[in-house]
From TrEMBL, chains A, B:
Residues 14-142 form the HTH marR-type domain. Pfam families: MarR_2 (PF12802). Keywords: DNA-binding, Transcription, Transcription regulation. This is MarR family transcriptional regulator. PROSITE patterns: HTH_MARR_2. It comes from Lacticaseibacillus manihotivorans. One of its GO terms (molecular function) is DNA binding.
Length: 152, 152
DNA sequence: ACTGATACTTTGAATGTCAAATCAGTTGAA
DNA sequence: TTCAACTGATTTGACATTCAAAGTATCAGT
């Protein structure tokens, strides 16, 4: 069960990274133009996306929250002017979600922050190395998917 | 401002990874022996550590929460039998925190899960590649630290 | 002994979440 | 055609996590 030192270090660093990134995002948000949004509201905007009009159900699944939770979240985002509800003409039960102009502004601002972050992530690496980093992330995604399979 | 496709992919994957890891940790926990613990309680146990007896203040700083928040969290963990409060003999104001036997069990179980995760992360890579991955994580940590500097 | 600083605790409010009950609209089978 | 079952969304009540602010206890320096 002995673990190599480098594995232990990677463990520690990975842990720090994925816990702190959310916190940093939150801090960044609080100091931006969009300081009346919480981190989970931002993720909701992110899950709706720029040009699509996904259903409420779809967005809830993307975020891994219940429909009830999403309904409440969307209500706030509509009040704040970031999201619009659009009734589906073919099926009146369905609510399609769409970002307003303000919502799209927010989306892009958040993406810009992510670009900065990714740029720093791969800083100093050449194309070959960057591919390798992507492959490592693919490994991690595979691990996550496995875990999701295991607990249906 | 155009972003190369690979950077965009890495962005998406990184985002997925750091949001989903917390979720699968939670799921894993709910199906384990320690299902009466929440993810944040687990992180609190993690921040106390196996053999140390850090002060309440230190742990709060590690977790980036206020002391009030930590006091409440510790109260629950003491009730559940994972943590002990130990009064500092030299300064009666200070509360040192220490894991119980049960708390140490939990700590080790969680570490084992992390080991699995890291093993999958670097799967298929040789030593040189693994060093490179570590360097990329260092970049990301540097980015996080920069952001923390920027917002004091 | 007094004063200010330090370490922790308590409390009240806000937020995010879920499960369960409910509402509204659709679909398919008798 | 009609109604029962289903589906998508909403509402509601409860609970967990967190913070800010006020409070308590103790310490250190003068």
């Amino acid at each position: 069960m002995a673990q190599r030192p480098i594995m232990k270090r990677i463990n520690t660093k990975l842990e720090k990274v994925y816990r702190d990134i959310l916190r940093i995002e939150e801090t960044e948000l609080r100091h931006s133009r969009f300081s009346n949004l919480s981190i989970s509201e931002m993720h909701t905007i992110d899950a709706i996306g720029l040009h699509a009009t996904p259903t409420s159900r779809t967005v809830a699944q993307r975020l891994h929250v219940t429909q009830g939770t999403l309904t409440v979240a969307i209500k706030h985002l509509v009040t704040k002017g970031y999201v619009e509800r659009v009734h589906d003409p073919k099926d009146a039960r369905i609510v399609n979600l769409q970002l307003t102009r303000k919502g799209r502004l927010m989306y892009r601002a958040h993406q810009a922050f992510h670009q900065q972050m990714v740029a720093s992530f791969v800083q100093g690496f050449d194309d070959h190395d960057i591919q390798l980093i992507e492959a490592a992330l693919d490994n991690l995604m595979a691990f996550i998917n496995e875990q999701d399979q295991k607990r249906p």
